[in-house]
Fold:
Amino acid sequence: MFDFTGKRVLVTGAASGIGDATARQLIAAGAQVVSLDRNEPAAAVAHHRIDLADVGSIDSVVARLDGTFDALFNVAGLPGTAPAEKVMAVNVFGMRHLTEALLERLTPGGSVVVVSSTAGFGWPQRLETIKELLATDTFDEAVAWFADNPQEGNAYNFSKECATVYTMTMGVALHELGLRINAVLPGPVRTPILEDFRKSMGEDTIDGAAILLGRHAEPDEVASAILFLASPGARWINGHPLIVDGGLSGTYLTGLVPLPEI
Ligand SMILES: NC(=O)c1ccc[n+]([C@@H]2O[C@H](COP(=O)([O-])OP(=O)(O)OC[C@H]3O[C@@H](n4cnc5c(N)ncnc54)[C@H](O)[C@@H]3O)[C@@H](O)[C@H]2O)c1
Structure:
């Protein structure tokens, strides 16, 4: 479907679920995939073990990476069953630190894709707070801000609100560098994390989505949206949160079907 011949692409979270499907599609499209994950991937030409909750681990991996890259796909994530500070560190602070550490290694025309979530749909109600957090300059400052400003509700939702707003606010800055940044916002996808979502968001929320649509998404269906956003056909799409949920958000956000409590 896409041509990534000769392209070098970094994929976090490549060891499982959506990241694994993304790595496989990239390889089939001709790319060299470099995996960054805490676990070994099944598909990639190279792998660096990384802990995205640990800024020292991110910096040492970045220092070991050779050459330039055509894209960075930030797919790794932790569910709301993990401690809140870990969820924020992996899904937001580590993702941001890695992205910004790699900007100068991305080739002109290159692209960043962030995997956020429809669970971050509440960002407009918390925008000022999110902007305050994103105004922190470093990983450690962001950790300290979150310790001083604990948020109501599931940390996963807040982390994805931040990931979506981060992507939207960085579009013009990346344009100035000749790069782009976009996000995909999946609804429920059939991967190992779904069991954790059942525990943290409730079975009714997760299974209700499958009742409306007849099934959950397959990882491949999110992976192809990620590849699209990094492809030349998406060259004027920038700072955009692309919903990839089979139509769920449309029905919820227009009030056609009541929004689940998550
Ligand atoms: N599956 C869903 O229903 C769904 C829905 C919306 C968004 N998402 C998002 O999609 C992304 C991928 O999730 P998935 O469904 O493939 O889940 P998954 O659990 O199958 O994969 C997550 C990957 O992230 C890696 N990871 C976690 N913590 C890490 C850390 N500290 N350092 C390095 N790597 C780490 C894991 O090792 C794993 O390979 C996540 O950001 C998730 O929030 C998933």
